[in-house]
Automatic annotation (TrEMBL):
Gene3D superfamilies: 3.30.70.100
Domain BLUF: 2-93
Species in which this protein is naturally found: Flavivirga eckloniae
Protein name: BLUF domain-containing protein
PROSITE patterns (UniProt xref): BLUF
Organism placement in taxonomy: Bacteria, Pseudomonadati, Bacteroidota, Flavobacteriia, Flavobacteriales
Superkingdom assignment: Bacteria
Any Pfam family the entry gives: BLUF
Molecular function in Gene Ontology: blue light photoreceptor activity; FAD binding
């Protein structure tokens, strides 16, 4: 069974570019290892992440993330079973959005999703777009 979890959290510190690159590399490696797709956005000391994949893998991944001391105030926004992945076709699976080029690609993908008229996809799209609008300048 497939599952998606989307959460937001506060960083415990203003992450340096070096620290973020290390975090992104580790997240991408771990998520590939467990066949997790999704997106991770960091801005202004906040994270938004969507994880999707096998239910056990997503739950285990979220548990590891929730124990990570680099962030706090973790709030699960979505935690449901799904029929299909939303981000599977987005940039080969798991993507980190940390620059305007990736942000533009994400906007294009979100617009494509919106046209698919999938209720869950549209909820995720709206959530991601709201987070981006509040946290990141459009590129």
């Amino acid at each position: 069974m497939l599952k998606t979890i989307c959460y937001i959290s506060d960083s415990c510190q203003d992450e340096s570019l070096t620290a973020l690159k290390a975090l992104y590399a580790q997240a991408k490696k771990n998520n590939s290892k467990y066949n997790i797709t999704g997106v991770l956005i960091y801005s202004n000391e906040n994270f938004l992440q969507v994880l999707e994949g096998d239910s056990d893998s997503v739950d285990a991944t979220f548990k590891r993330i929730s124990l990570d001391r680099r962030h706090k105030n973790i709030f699960k926004v979505i935690n449901i079973d799904i029929q299909q992945r939303i981000f599977e076709d987005y940039n080969f699976g798991f993507t980190i959005v940390n620059d305007s080029k990736e942000l533009d690609k994400l906007y294009e993908y979100l617009e494509w999703l919106r046209k698919a008229e999938n209720t869950l996809a549209n909820k995720v799209v709206n959530m991601v777009e709201n987070f981006i609008a509040q946290k990141l300048p459009k590129g």
